[in-house]
Amino acid sequence: MKIRNAAMAAAALSLATAPAIAQVDFARASAPIEGESEMGGSGVILGILAAAAVIAGVVIAAGGGDDDSVSG
Fold first, then answer.
1. Which residue of 13, 34, 48, 52 shows the fewest CB atoms closer than 10 Å?
2. How do residues 3-41 score in pLDDT, each as one tens digit?
3. In the 8-state DSSP scheme, what is residue 25?
4. Which helix (H) or strand (E) holds 5?
5. What's the CA gap between 16 and 23, in Å, rounded?
6. Residues near 53 by Cβ (< 8 Å), separated by ≥ 6?
7. Is pTM, for the whole model, over 0.85?
8. Which residues of 29-66 are buried (b: 16+ CB within 10 A; e: fewer)?
9. SS3 for 26?
10. CB-based contacts of 4: which residues, under 8 Å, 6+ apart?
11. pLDDT for 72 beyond 60
């Protein structure tokens, strides 16, 4: 019964504060940019490395089929 009362209180609080929160302006001022990033172009390198890792994983997964078991 206490959980039900707590849930009802939380619901009432959220309904009461929703209009006030909706009117608040959350706009941010952006900081000025002084120079370019030092990591420029690393996205291309990471993309190439990720593609190579995927290809290597496929080759390793598909390449291990030479295990012929002999039952006798």
1. 34
2. 888 888 888 888 887 777 766 666 666 777 776 656 556
3. -
4. helix 2-22
5. 13
6. none
7. no
8. eeeeeeeeeeeeeeeeeeeeeeeeeeeeeeeeeeeeee
9. coil
10. none
11. no
Q: What is the pLDDT of residue 58?
A: 83
Rounded to an integer, what distance in angstroms lies between the CA atom of residue 9 and that of residue 3? 10
| Residue where the block lists tokens 């959220």 | 14
Half-sphere exposure of 24 (CA within 13 A, CB side): 7
Amino acid making up residue 35: G
Distances (CA, A) of 63 to 41, 49, 53, 55, 56: 34, 21, 15, 12, 10
What one-letter code names the amino acid at 16?
A: A
C-alpha span between 19 and 22 (Å, rounded)? 5
